[in-house]
Amino acid sequence: MNIGSCLCGSIKFEIVSDPVAVSHCHCKMCQKQHGAAFATYARFKRADVEYTKGKEKLSVFNSSEDVLRKFCSICGSNIEWGCSERYPEWVAIAVGSFDNDFSTSEIKELHQESKVCWLRSS
């Protein structure tokens, strides 16, 4: 089980399954939303994600045609993004919001055409 929260603790969640995919997204929208070179998300079935505190404090931004990005209305922590119409049964959760140790065997690199020039590979 993965558990997580926003920076201020107003929102808490639990996830009862393992992710079906994990990715570093280098798209410009993720860079701007996270204020970082990329965003790391793990994708889960929406039914496996339960908000245990503060679900009403999630703010929503429709960043593109049908992508909804959700974040804490108090501290601004990025929590999730999902497609409102195309794939409503899936949700991607920001791995940085997990409170437990998280590991995965594979991380896909998405939208590398937008990868920042100053990010060096290790």
From TrEMBL:
InterPro entries: CENP-V/GFA, Mss4-like_sf. It holds the Pfam family GFA. PROSITE patterns: CENP_V_GFA. Keywords: Lyase, Metal-binding, Zinc. Residues 2-116 form the CENP-V/GFA domain. Signal peptide: none annotated. Belongs to the Gfa family. This is CENP-V/GFA domain-containing protein. It comes from Thalassotalea insulae.
